């Protein structure tokens, strides 16, 4: 185990749970990954992975090695940053996972400002309607809509945000008036696919007393596109309204939800100064952007 590159390949296989997945991340061919893992196992005199229907699963020895490999990874990252120095600003690549509503309507503006201040920084935003697995390094950090209660994580509240009922101006002009929540039952409803709601914080319609969804998608931009097309009434993030012309709030005095965004990181990353600095900038910029859009 003299070669850090072998350890890097080992970590990639453990996280991707496949040779091909690791090869794609590392930009090498799977045969190379297989040879390097075999060499590492020979040096360690231990089997590090077993192949299962779910993919490559670390053995007990492999699981023990993961902790040491991740410690080496953090040390290499800290050394790189120390050599480059803080004066250059943030550099390298940071991958950020986020729900698609946040990723579509907040992060493009926020991350563009951060990169303008740090030209050497590359940001990757992975927008998926699900919870990210930071242990598998699907992302360097993630934004969530609820606070995790398990796992070795570092969690920080970013900011509260609000959501409202909305529909297109044309729809509201041509359809029966909505004066109370009870009137909503006479209108087509836009919302999430019920069995694809990955977090209870996203079950907005239940709080409006609604259970049936006429136009359902697991994508926030799709839901907003339906609302703008006059499909019906749905719940929209207030911070998305400036990017959705033609939509009006419905029952603004009676219905308003408050949720929060949380920044979620692996606990061990607290010692990586570069990620700490990015997390600080991201939190500051997101708070400012949400506040600015609330005033729009």
UniProtKB/TrEMBL annotation:
CDD domains: PBP2_LTTR_substrate. The lineage of its organism: Bacteria, Pseudomonadati, Pseudomonadota, Alphaproteobacteria, Rhodobacterales. InterPro entries: LTTR, LysR_HTH_N, LysR_subst-bd, WH-like_DNA-bd_sf, WH_DNA-bd_sf. Belongs to the LysR transcriptional regulatory family. Keywords: DNA-binding, Transcription, Transcription regulation. This is LysR family transcriptional regulator. Residues 1-59 form the HTH lysR-type domain. One of its GO terms (molecular function) is DNA-binding transcription factor activity. Pfam families: HTH_1 (PF00126), LysR_substrate (PF03466).
């Amino acid at each position: 185990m003299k070669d850090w590159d072998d350890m890097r390949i080992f970590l990639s296989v453990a996280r991707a749970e496949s040779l091909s997945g690791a090869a794609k991340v590392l930009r090498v061919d799977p045969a190379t990954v297989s040879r390097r893992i075999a060499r590492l196992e020979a040096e360690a005199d231990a089997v590090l992975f077993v192949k299962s229907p779910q993919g490559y699963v670390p053995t007990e020895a492999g699981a023990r090695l993961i902790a040491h490999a991740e410690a080496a990874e953090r040390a290499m990252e800290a050394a790189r940053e120390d050599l480059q120095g803080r004066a250059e600003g943030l550099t390298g690549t940071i991958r950020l996972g986020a729900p698609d509503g946040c990723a579509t309507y907040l992060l493009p503006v926020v991350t563009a400002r951060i990169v303008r201040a740090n030209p050497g920084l590359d940001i990757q935003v992975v927008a998926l309607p699900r919870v990210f697995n930071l242990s598998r390094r699907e992302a360097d950090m993630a934004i969530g809509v609820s606070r995790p209660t398990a796992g070795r994580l570092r969690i920080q509240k970013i900011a509260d945000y609000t959501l409202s009922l909305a529909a297109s101006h044309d729809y509201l002009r041509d359809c029966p008036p909505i004066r109370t929540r009870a009137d909503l039952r006479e209108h087509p409803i836009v919302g999430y696919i019920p069995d694809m709601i990955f977090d209870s914080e996203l079950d907005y319609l239940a709080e409006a007393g609604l259970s049936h969804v006429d136009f359902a998608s697991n994508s926030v931009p799709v839901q907003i596109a339906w609302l703008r097309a006059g499909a019906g009434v749905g719940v929209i993030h207030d911070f998305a309204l400036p990017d959705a012309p033609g939509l009006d709030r419905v029952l603004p005095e009676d219905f308003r939800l408050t949720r929060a965004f949380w920044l979620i990181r692996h606990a061990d990353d607290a010692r990586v100064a570069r990620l700490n600095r990015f997390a600080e900038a991201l939190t500051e910029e997101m708070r400012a952007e949400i506040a600015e859009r609330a005033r729009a």
